[in-house]
Amino acid sequence: MSSPAADPVENRWPGERLGLPESGPRSIGRLGRRLIAIVIDWGVAYLLSWAFFPTQLGTDPFITLGIFAALQYLFLIVVNGSLGHLLVRLRVVPLAGGYLGLWRPLVRTLLLCLGIPALIWDRDQRGLHDKAAGTVLVRV
């Protein structure tokens, strides 16, 4: 049996394998902050859908999803995080460093809108949408 320090597969904390700190700035954004951020983002999209595209039943879910996707993409390109991310002090950064670009936010947003990729995580708490886009959600 090997010790935890000698076993490269074991992580002592999420993000250690990626070279990220255990806590504080640049550490992995944890589940609580992520949930609060997605609730904020979805709430803003719902309110905009209800305000500008009302239906007899409240809102059209596809219009709400479209607004959610547009806001995600726009905010990711401009400020590296959605409105919810900004409020809970998270940012989306490319794993390789540098500029997030245009394709990473697009891939991340499209997969996030499917839902399932965001619910499947690796041992570093990166969803499949982040893995496909080559991004990581970190604390500010």
TrEMBL record:
InterPro entries: Pra-immunoreactive (IPR051791), RDD (IPR010432), UCP021697 (IPR016795). The keyword Cell membrane applies. It is a multi-pass membrane protein. It is found in: Cell membrane. Residues 30-134 form the RDD domain. Its main location: membrane. The chain crosses the membrane at residues 35-53, 65-88. PANTHER family: PROLINE-RICH ANTIGEN HOMOLOG, PROLINE-RICH ANTIGEN HOMOLOG-RELATED. Keywords: Cell membrane, Membrane, Transmembrane, Transmembrane helix. This is RDD family protein.
